[in-house]
Write a structure and sequence with these properties.
- This protein has helices at about 5-25, 45-50, 60-75, 95-105, 110-130, 135.
- It has about 140 residues and is mainly α.
- The chain has one domain (about 5-135).
- The longest helix is centred in the last third of the chain and has 21 residues, at about 110-130.
- The chain is globular and about 45 Å long.
């Protein structure tokens, strides 16, 4: 037990984080959310509308993943509640990939929790052997 929590407590905690991720990934899909500075926002809604059209280059799955990632980033910039995984700067990527993959594969919440735990394990390997910090390792670290 690395965390001092039981397996059930860890899964419950990850489940709460997943709920936040799902909310942030859809909050800006149908309405324009502007950043606190009012400089960014509205892109998630545009990509969402494009993903729903019949004329996409990549198909709806990839475009919906992009829309979800943008929604998450826009929620972050607008000071909404997010889970910074792995960092606030890249916060929409992991949730968008897991939510979109689960949608396509028909995975339930338990499978999504499994995916987040797997991502956390990969993140631990990276953090131990490199860095997650753009300031420390450069933005491509």
């Amino acid at each position: 037990m690395l965390t001092g929590k039981t397996k059930e407590e860890v899964r419950e905690s990850i489940g709460r984080m997943l709920d936040i991720m799902i909310n942030a990934s859809k909050i800006a899909l149908d309405k324009t959310i502007k950043s606190v500075s009012n400089l960014t926002g509205g892109d998630a809604k545009k990509v969402n509308m494009y993903a729903k059209s019949d004329h996409t280059i990549c198909g709806s799955t990839i475009n919906m993943a992009i829309a979800r990632a943008l929604s998450y980033s826009e929620a972050n910039a607008a000071m909404e509640v997010i889970v910074a995984a792995p960092t606030a700067g890249s916060c929409g990527i992991v949730p968008a990939a897991i939510i979109s993959g689960a949608e396509v594969m028909g995975a339930d919440k338990e499978k999504m929790i499994d995916a987040l735990l797997t991502a956390a394990g990969v993140g631990q390997i990276i953090a131990r052997n490199a860095t997650l910090s753009g300031a420390k390792g450069g933005c491509q670290a």
